[in-house]
Amino acid sequence: MRLWVKHARQVVRVVSDADPCREYLAGPAQKNCNLAILEEKDGIGLSIIIDRDGLIADIGYDDVMQHKYENQTIEEIIDATGRSVLPGLVDAHTHPVWAGDRVHEFSMKLAGATYMDIYEAGGGIHFTVNHTRNASEDELYGLLRQRLMRMLANGTVLVEGKSGYGLDAENEIKMLRVLERAKRELPIDISSTFCGAHAVPKNQTAEEATQNVLNEQLPKVMLMQANGELHVDSIDVFCEKGVFDVEQSRRILEAGKRAGLRLNFHADELTPINGTEMGASIGAEAMSHLEEISPAGIAAMAVKPSIAVILPTTAYLLRLKPPPVREMITQGVPVALGSDFNPNAYCLSMPLVMNLACVLFGMTLPEALVAATINAAAALGKQNTHGSLEIGKYGDLLILNAPRWEHLVYQMGDNQQVIGQVIKRGRIIDRTAT
Ligand SMILES: N=CN[C@@H](CCC(=O)O)C(=O)O
Ligand SMILES: [Zn+2]
User: Quick check: CB of 270 below 6 Å from ligand 1?
Assistant: First the structure.
């Protein structure tokens, strides 16, 4: 065995075999859910054992585990006396590959400029596209590496990462290749998303940009996918007034679906244009933002269901209307969380995201944990490997310097002190490495 964590005060499994659905939690199962939690009993702590493949081999009380495993060779033992153990977090929406920060735009926004004011004036995504196109693959990889290692240090073990600052075949592929390298070299799992329709390039109309994604970018990406040079999971579009309209978004997403990609896109963020209804009608696995979702959009998402990926940092920074999270949960839409890390929302911390989701959007602590673990994993189609502590899943754990898991969210802004150890596939992550 690779690792034995013993004597824990609490093990938060999130879901277990007792749950009728273990792939995601929705409706009453997410609302005020009874998280699957094991607590120390009569002074007997809890153990988790991770095998040589980095998978969870067993979870249970120390005395039972001692009896079962005392004769086995164990590479490493962690004494978790008095501490809480929970699954590594999953960040369901990020834009992590880019050059050129936008700190100057932060002051503009504080002074009252809206996101679209800055975008239409040639800043925002356009600013980042210029810098990203001019950066080499090595430069982008160096920046990405440092960001992903900081996410991991803050407890994220699986992250969705989008392209979308290239906007042409060459530069979108460059970004996807950078993500590919990170998958090979870094101890964090990545689900990559092709987002060539993230903005309309300055010299094109939205229709020309749509044609470019359909006829140039997507075919080239899929050719590299077929050759095994890329492993892209999903396709994304910024479906928004003044960017890609609902019909253009539908055409791009349907082409991606025909090519075998999951649908996971930006919908109804700044203006209510019924992008969500369209997404549900074509079977989107996940949709993000949703500040402007309609009641019909919520009902449509609840059917399949499509997973709602909520991004509190963006709503907070741009002072947007909060997405109707309570209504989504009541109607049975599974809610997940993402940091939306990008040059507009520079946040690498899922514990902070969970805190914002609770305080600003009225989520309960258990709802936020479900949203940042099993539901975020399900948004990426990774619910069979990530998002809960169950036998056979990846041995990805956070061991807190606290007796109860809620401290992760309650002690805000200081995650790396609260999280004592981040374990990925049974190995302790060196959080001083960047
Ligand atoms: N809304 C579109 N995309 C990003 C922002 C990207 C950017 O501003 O660079 C988002 O999810 O918030
Ligand atoms: Zn985004």
Answer: no
Which CATH number fits the domain that encloses residue 183? 3.20.20.140
Cβ of 193 below 6 Å from ligand 1: no
CA–centroid distance, 192 to ligand 2, in Å, is: 13
**pTM here?**
0.98
pLDDT digits (tens, 9 = 90+) for 58-111: 999 999 999 999 999 999 999 999 999 999 999 999 999 999 999 999 999 999
Q: Does 433 fall in a domain?
A: no
Q: Which atom from ligand 1 is nearest to the alpha carbon of 119?
A: 8
How far does the centroid of ligand 2 lie from the alpha carbon of residue 332, in Å?
Answer: 23
Q: Tens of pLDDT along 112-157?
A: 999 999 998 889 999 999 999 999 999 999 999 999 999 999 999 9
Q: Is 102 in the pocket of ligand 1 (CB under 6 A)?
A: no
**Could you tell me if the CB of 162 is within 6 A of ligand 1?**
no
Are 157 and 234 in a shared domain?
Answer: yes
Counting atoms of ligand 1 from 1, which one is nearest the CA of 270? Answer: 1
Domain with residue 413: its CATH number is 2.30.40.10
The CA-based diameter of the chain, rounded to the nearest angstrom, is: 69
Q: Based on the domain organization, do 78 and 32 belong to the same domain? A: yes
CA distances to 7, 64, 216, 248 from 205, in Å:
61, 66, 16, 12
Could you write out the three-class secondary structure of 34-92?
CCEEEECECCECEEEEECCCCEEEEEEEHHHHHHHHCCCCCCEEEECECCEEEECEEEC
Verify whether ligand 1 is closer than 6 Å to residue 238 (CB atom): yes
Domain that holds residue 31: 3-87+389-428
CA pair distance 338, 350, nearest whole angstrom: 7
> Residue 281 corresponds to which tokens in the numbers above?
């009608």
